[in-house]
Specification:
Number of strands: 15
Strand order of the largest sheet: 6-7-8-9-10-11
Shape: elongated
Length: about 200
């Protein structure tokens, strides 16, 4: 519908709140204006909140489990969001439409370029690879591929199947492998001299 000039004979009516974006009230044809759920205070924009404290703030008070924001793509492009500190680091996050709809985090404004993390349709997670073939696939050109650190005096990794649990344990100058959750004679233990 086109905007029309409002003169003294118009029946346009209504009231509103300062900084609230105006909308036509009710459904269908309406001559009454009222507040919408959008606030613009000249600096920040709020949806569902009248005093936004950041450039864009979305607020909802409900029991819904649906997302507050949804990015949809109906073409061949990607459904993505970009993050950028001007003149510095750039990241993109979203669904790569051209690569089997994989979810990616990329160190670029272009999703799918310089990809850091990938989750495919099978739920496999890739770090340093866009084609993870197992639940966690880490690929790197560096000598050290992963680093696990604990602030406790013992670090432990648990590896389990449907009926057995095993442990990789590091404590002091020893490392232990086995089914016992501590450094114990029942495990394979390697000491400082490399003896087993």
């Amino acid at each position: 519908d086109a905007w029309e000039k409002v003169d003294n004979s118009s029946v346009l009516d209504g009231s509103g709140t300062g900084n609230q974006i105006t909308k036509w009230a009710g459904s269908g044809t309406s001559n009454t204006l009222t507040d919408s759920i959008i606030t613009d205070d000249g600096t920040n924009v709020g949806i569902g909140i009248i005093n936004p404290s950041v450039p864009l703030e979305v607020y909802n008070d409900s029991t819904t489990t649906l997302p507050l924001i949804r990015v949809k793509q109906d073409g061949t492009g990607d459904a993505s969001i970009g993050f950028n500190t001007i003149g510095s680091t750039q990241y993109s996050i979203g669904i790569d439409n051209s690569d089997s709809d994989k979810f990616k985090i990329s160190r670029s404004t272009d999703l799918g370029t310089s990809t850091q993390i990938t989750i495919n349709s099978s739920g496999n997670v890739g770090i340093g690879t866009t084609s993870p073939s197992v639940k966690l696939y880490v690929s790197s050109s560096e000598e050290t591929v992963a680093h696990f650190n604990s602030s406790d005096n013992r670090a432990r990794i648990i590896i389990a199947d449907d009926d057995t649990t095993n442990y990789v344990i590091s404590e002091g100058d020893k490392m232990s492998l086995g089914r016992i959750a501590s450094l114990n004679a029942g495990n394979l233990t390697i000491g400082t001299s490399g003896n087993v």
